Amino acid sequence: MGNNSFRNLILFSFITSLGVTCSSVQKLNEPSKLIQEPYYKPIGDSANTFIFRESETDHRIRKVGHEIPVLAFSPIDYPKSVDKKLASYFEQEISLLWKDIKYTSAKISPEVWKNKTTLNDEIKSKDVDVLVLGTVSESEIGWTFKFELKDSVDSSKFGDFELSFKRPVSSEESGTWSQAIFWKGSDRVISLESKQTTVPVWDRKPDALKIREIVNSSVKGTLSVRASSGDTEILWKGKSLGNTPLTEVPIQEGVQEVQLVLKGKKPITKTIQVRAGKKNYLFQEWEEDRTLGSAKVISVPSGLSVSLDGYKQGETPFYRSNLTPGGYQLELLKESTDGSYVYYEGVLDVKADRLVELALPYSGQGLLGETEFWKPSGETNFSPFGPNGLEFAKKKDLPNGWNGVYSLPFIPEELELEGYFLLPVDHGNGSVAVTFHLNGISLGLVAGKEKVSVFQFPSDGKTLSTYTYLDVDKDVGRPFSFRTDLKNKKLLLYLGRDKVWEGDLPAGGLWTVSVLTRGEEFREKTPIKDLKILYKGYK
Q1: What is the residue range of 516's domain?
Q2: 3-state secondary structure of 190
């Protein structure tokens, strides 16, 4: 009897511990709180203030960019068969490739390269732009060197190149390397020995122009501009970059002013923060014939073919003005050598003097960096965008109310929207609300430093429940997700692995998601992390 009781106690303890382990959050026994419904409102570009932001983690975000890049060359780990003299020969020959390329070299000792933390500190202190990472492989024929030029902060690659030397197999192929040995006295230098030694010869040299282009690109981002009128001219530093549509034109890093000019209209100047290696987008909607409409269709990632009434019109991101009002049969297709796959087909309803917008984040990874997916919402003296995407900033105290971004209307499908609130240690002060806006219902979460509350509108304005996380991803943050179940017509809300809300899925209409912070509880910098939308069945 005693043994059975003991075994039952162990089993009960195991089940209890298993239950705790499987649960991500704990519901708090506290009264509901009154919350103002998170709302968004369209605001014009003139109301959206540009604010320069320095970054604690990305020293390449600069107010004034580098014109000449700073490069740090990693030491090369040679095979044991390559002695110091041969290694010195290789490095002398390879250095000749760089002699006509403009760059500044940052000297970092081989010992520092072995320690990632120390290396990162050294890279930041010397304001390095690019890491030149070299490797060598040996074969019976000779030696092949591979070089990658990577961003010093996020390791994205600007480019690479290869070169090789071959072993001399005959006297005709032998190269010579003159070597002199000197003795230095107090008042003179005496040559002691001079000799020539047989060395490997070049087999394959890289294109010096290619190396120069890679190096030059390391201090530039790209700019893409589209406008409702294709006659819009883009000026930068008084020089014309061309007319819209402008696609991925290189532009110097730093804070840049871009002027948009259309005959008969007042020129518009927009300020952007260019981060080297990153893409920047601008869109200008001009007031034109009020009897016609316009359309904007984007996808994440871009590149889907856009067809209206059976005729291909272009690819996403797609902009078209001067459209006759009415319903257009819209198809978004992914074309390949095997044929076309239709990702979406429906009606695009164009109205007079209106811009109709539609998004399909069919593989919506990294949505926080997709600035074309978001529109600003809030007050003047507030800016939601930084060089890397969503980064909230303000110039002065803001009035009560919500500031942030809301997405373009996206296509209702069976999907999962997931992301992470910051860890309490990183969240700091303020609050962030993530809201799923559907036809007739708004469902969302508002996160503070320690707690996350669930809310629904229409309602009496009170939170439904409040939770604290028991289990988090310490590398990212506190996970949440919205999930739709079209088969059972249900909408589900999860915190971590725990379902914290379930309700009926409204029918019809497009959906929008907003990420907002309150003026009186303003959350600086990145509001959330790693937001993505996953459509089931899409690859």
Answers
A1: 367-535
A2: strand
Say if 225 falls within a structural domain.
yes
Task: Summarize pLDDT for 352-374 with one digit per residue, the tens.
Answer: 988 899 999 988 888 998 888 99
CATH number of the domain encompassing residue 518? 2.60.120.200
The Cα 132–Cα 136 span in angstroms is 13
Q: Which tokens hold the place of 360? A: 């399909």
DSSP string, 434-453: EEEEETTEEEEEEE-SS-EE
DSSP, collapsed to helix, strand or coil, labels residue 48 as coil
Domain ends where: 309, 336, 361? 361
Q: Per residue in 70-87, pLDDT tens? A: 999 999 999 999 999 999
The CA-to-CA distance between both ends of the chain, in Å, stands at 58
Query: Which residues are registered as beta bridge partners of 315?
Result: 305
Instruction: Write the pLDDT tens digit of every residue in 6-30.
Output: 444 444 444 444 444 478 899 999 9
Q: Are the beta carbons of 428 and 450 closer than 8 angstroms?
A: no
Of the chain, the percentage scoring pLDDT greater than 90 comes to 59
Q: Hunting for tokens 């320069």 — which residue is that?
A: 52
Task: Look at residues 373, 379, 380, 309 and name the one whose alpha carbon lies nearest to residue 346.
Answer: 309
Choosing from 361, 376, 405, the residue where a domain stops is 361
What global pTM score does this model have?
A: 0.75
